[in-house]
Design a protein that fits this description.
Number of helices: 10
Distance between the termini: 22 Å
Shape: globular
Helix content: 25-40%
CATH class: Alpha Beta
Number of domains: 1
Oligomer: single chain
Number of strands: 10
CATH superfamily: ComB-like
């Protein structure tokens, strides 16, 4: 198995893999997985605010997401995974727009037929699926922040990469696997984590960096334009 990790800014032409794992630990990936685990029917990622509003109006769906970590005024929900409880999302379609994560998903689904949602909270389930499918090549792609790698995403990518039976990996994979050796308490001091803490969202950070809170695997389906459970 060949495993490549792509940190931060990604050129879609780099992705030639049997499967792609998209990671935005704080917080898109975690929010998506939490919503699906709590019964959301599907999640539609939007690349722009206008797109989210238009789809939400057409489908009469829940609008969720953030701009600079804050819930937009016209949205019903923010990007905190803790908001997406069963009572609010079960059986619902959610239109999600975020600063980094949903844009990454739109990019990846345009070039890959198999895009999986990766996060710390579902890592064992994701690894079980990847090993069972025995893909020849896997790309693990992080959202980062403003085109730069984010520590929490690199940490998650490393946790995944080091647990796969890889025979070949790239430089970023080696970097990520080294970062994954860090104590998680160090990762909680990452820049974006501290930004969220200052906004009163420290519980999001704790939740998002807790291993195996969720036992599901989710795929972004390019043909259907939505994210669903596998």
């Amino acid at each position: 198995m060949k495993v490549n990790v792509l940190l931060g800014a990604v050129d879609s032409s780099l992705i030639y893999s049997d499967a792609v794992v998209a990671i935005d630990v704080l917080r898109s990936s975690t929010t998506i997985l939490t919503a699906l685990a709590n019964g959301a029917e599907n999640i539609i990622p939007a690349e722009t605010m206008d797109e989210a509003l238009a789809i939400g109006e057409r489908l009469k769906a829940i609008l969720g997401g953030e701009v600079n970590s804050i819930k937009p005024a016209l949205f019903q929900m923010g990007n905190s995974p803790l908001e997406y409880v069963r009572e609010r999302v079960s059986g619902k379609t959610i239109i999600l727009y975020t600063s980094s994560g949903t844009r990454l998903l739109k990019l990846l689904t345009a070039v890959s037929k198999k895009v999986l949602i990766g996060a710390v909270v579902n890592i064992s389930s994701l690894l079980g699926y990847l090993k069972k499918e025995n893909f020849n090549s896997i790309s693990i792609v992080t959202a980062g922040r403003t085109g730069s790698p984010a520590l929490e995403d690199t940490y998650c990518a490393g946790l995944i990469a080091r647990s796969l039976p890889w025979e070949e990996c790239n430089r970023d994979a080696k970097i990520a696997m080294k970062i994954a050796e860090m104590n998680v308490d160090v990762v909680k001091e990452a820049r974006h984590a501290l930004e969220l803490v200052k906004l009163g969202l420290g519980r999001d950070v704790e939740y998002s960096l807790t291993l195996d809170k969720i036992r599901i695997v989710a795929e972004a389906n390019s043909s259907k334009g939505c994210i669903r459970l596998l």
